Every structure is written in structure tokens, then in C-alpha cells.
């Protein structure tokens, strides 16, 4: 894990960041600039997970690593960082893993995380839903989920999970993202289960738009900071 402390204040919370990259690319270090900004803007510790990547380490290696990191924070954040306020989030595949991690923790009776920020995740890797069929031929699905006996298992495709009793969730997605319908479906599932969900759709924005230096990305990140600041302050 890579750990970023705020430079000018004692931490008021911890955010567990899970990087994107289709489960087979990317690294925790690749998010350093963004996570450094988040740490200083909100006065929080940002912990980024260096989870194992497909195809060398397919499912369930990545969710196992993310669950391990989340469990460590749940147990040690107070002693290590001086705060029990925890949030989790991810970008693209990282959002998928963040949702999987929350469901795993919930099923174990762990309710340490008080908020989740999910940026344009992919929630159906089975190709069974209309949104899932749009990406059914993508390489990353075979690389990551190729050995899974059932790709509709909630641990592979969180759209099939029971999301009851999860913490409040912010979902961010672009209007032109191929995963838009996947995110709409996840928001509907969360809402139907009684979860506090805030869905924000950004006009004319493609997949991964918050990772680019544009005015729209800046506005979206301001939204993220404001929402997360409110949740960690409660």
C-alpha cells in the first residue's frame, strides 16, 4: 500500500483508494498526484492498494488484496492514523473492486466504512445484462474473470450482489461512457435496497473523464471533494 498524509493538519479521516486499469493495468503509484491532492484538500490520509493484476493473477486475487487492505484499516486506522472515519473508492475497475470489498466486509459483519465514491465502475462482467453485453468482448473480462466458474457471482459482477446495509455511495459517470447504463443499474439497485445513493451524470463526458485535465473533470472532482468532506465530517 502507498500512504499519503496531509501536509498541514492532523488526519480527520482515511480514504482507501483502489486504482483502475481494467484489472490488468495501472498501479497505486499511478494515482500519486491525484491522491496527494485529495489528502491535502480534505486533510485526510489516502491509502492506495497495489493489488495483484490479471492475467497473471486473475479473480479472486484483486478482491482478496483489496479486502485485506480494507480489513487492515478497519482494525488499525485508529492506532496508525488517529481516526476511525473511513471511506473507500475507486476509478473504473477500482470502483468495481471497491463495491466488491464493501459487500465482502458487510457479509463478515464489518461496518467500518462510512462512505464510498464510485467513479464509472463496471458491474456486470457476465454479459447477461444489456449494459454488460456492450463490453462482453473486452479483453479485460477474459483476463480477469476467465477462471471464474460463474461470472454472475456477486464477487465477480457486483450488479448481482445484495447491496443492503452498505454505506452512502456517490456514483459519478459520464453521459457518453459506455458503462453509463451499468452505473444507472447499480444506482437503482442501491436505491431499491435503501442505500443512500447520490448519482451524478456529467454531460458529454466519456469513460475515465475525471483523469484528464479539463474544466469538466475539475468540476467533477470538486463535487467529489465536497461530498466526501461532508461524509467524513459526520
Helix-strand pattern, N to C?
EEHEHEHEHHEHEH
Report the sheet with the most strands, covering strand number, pairing sense and barrel closure. 7 strands, mixed
Low-confidence stretches: none
What is the strand arrangement across the widest sheet? 1-3-2-4-5-6-7
Overall mean confidence score, pLDDT: 96
Radius of gyration: 16 Å
Number of helices: 7
How many angstroms separate the termini?
Answer: 26 Å
Strand content: 15-25%
Q: Which shape, going by the Cα principal axes? A: globular
Number of strands: 7
Structural class: alpha/beta
Helix content: 25-40%
Explain how this protein is built.
It is built from seven helices and seven strands; from the N terminus they run E-E-H-E-H-E-H-E-H-H-E-H-E-H. By secondary structure, the chain is an alpha/beta fold. A seven-stranded mixed sheet has the order 1-3-2-4-5-6-7, sandwiched between helices. Strand 2, helix 1 and strand 3 form a beta-alpha-beta unit. Helix 2 packs across helix 3 (93-107). It is globular and about 45 Å long. It starts with a strand and ends with a helix. The mean pLDDT is 96.
Short synopsis of the structure:
This protein is α/β, with parallel strands linked by helices and 234 residues long.
Write the layout of secondary structure elements.
Elements: E1 2-4, E2 14-18, H1 32-42, E3 45-48, H2 61-81, E4 86-91, H3 93-107, E5 113-119, H4 130-133, H5 139-145, E6 169-174, H6 180-192, E7 197-202, H7 215-232
Parallel strand pairs: 2-3, 2-4, 4-5, 5-6, 6-7
Antiparallel strand pairs: 1-3
Helix pairs in contact: 2-3
